[in-house]
């Protein structure tokens, strides 16, 4: 049985193969494509107040959903080309964060919020 | 039965809850965190030649895997906060691309490579 | 008489030349480096409330200043390699925006804020 | 006498003022806008080979010039809102890089190319 991300990766592999686009899908190019799509996603939120960003109307949400789809496409394709399992890699980082950010120490304090991790 | 991305989203939800970090996880903040992590991923590849990027040594691959993990963490958390199914959104975009890029027209020509889609 | 950006571009040209790093400074690599540095700049602001971001303490401001320096370095080097005058290009975009966003129409309304321009 | 970047900053200040858009131009929003524009710039280069990226045709160069203009607009506006002098900040980073990357040590070796600086 394959996972939904493996199915998506397989579809992308076939998508590139039938168009002879594999030569474009180098790690450098794919990471640039991912970065470009994340830029479009950021642009959807840039002028919104925090409150507006939490309460998108149907049109804005549809655009955001499309951008999230593009980001997922390139992230999945990049990981496939590199042979990395995204969900395993995410859990490995969360194992680290679990050790690093003791809930009893970090709970309830904005000032202790870490600069980068979740 | 839940999927592996639903499991990851649930772990992230709990991770934020026990630290009282939900207030930081607004869409604006999460999209910024995603953008920052993609920047770190891009930095791993910036000075490599195309050939070097295809043949990462174990140390570089471990760093890239860690960055891919961070990107997946924030992308999954953002999608969860917005109520978007990433894999569904990706397939919807690919349905569009399948219609838009006829393999018989686009096959084998660099010049016809689209500016943005996969 | 040269401008301050021309002086900076000249310093960067020499910086690359004496290290034999010109071969790394291709447009693709430099645009990736710019993207990576902007990611680090975004990361400085990601968890701040809008009010906190307006009132950085000296330590945070020093970090932000350093990241802005890095972004300026790569943007200037990229423009130099491509033969583009950044300030002329910016004024050309503002000429467009002046025509496109009539102050009498756009003034005072959040809802009319354009998706992308300033 | 003012510099060309000060003149550009002054034009942007007035541009925002007459439209009552100052409230949108918070540091968080402007850094997101900068990130979005850099994403568009990256997208211009993503599928090009290194050789193609060095030899843009007139149409591609015009698009790249427009994106560089947008990036310069937001970078200048962000620095103005934060009270940072971009060119001074860039020279300060280059002073550091001059100390850190001795030309005699780093010259002529791809493998010694630093992960991040120019």
From TrEMBL, chains A, B, C, D:
- SUPFAM superfamilies under this entry? all-alpha NTP pyrophosphatases
The family database entries (InterPro entries) matched by this protein are listed as: dCTP_Pyrophosphatase, DCTPP
Signal peptide boundaries:
none
List the Gene Ontology MF annotations in alphabetical order.
Answer: nucleoside triphosphate diphosphatase activity
Q: State the Gene3D superfamilies in the record.
A: MazG-like (1.10.287.1080)
Q: Name one GO biological process term.
A: nucleoside triphosphate catabolic process
Q: Which domain of life is it from?
A: Bacteria
Q: What is this protein called?
A: Nucleotide pyrophosphohydrolase
Lineage of origin: Bacteria, Bacillati, Actinomycetota, Actinomycetes, Streptosporangiales
């Amino acid at each position: 049985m394959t996972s939904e991300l493996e199915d998506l990766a397989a579809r992308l592999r076939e998508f590139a193969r039938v168009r002879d686009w594999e030569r474009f899908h180098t790690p450098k190019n794919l990471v640039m494509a991912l970065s470009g799509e994340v830029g479009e996603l950021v642009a959807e939120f840039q002028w919104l107040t925090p409150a507006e960003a939490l309460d998108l109307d149907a049109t804005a949400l549809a655009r955001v959903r499309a951008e999230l789809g593009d980001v997922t496409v390139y992230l999945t394709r990049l990981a496939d080309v590199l042979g990395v399992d995204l969900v395993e890699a995410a859990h490995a980082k969360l194992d680290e964060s679990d050790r690093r950010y003791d809930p009893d120490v970090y709970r309830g304090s904005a000032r202790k919020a870490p600069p980068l991790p979740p």
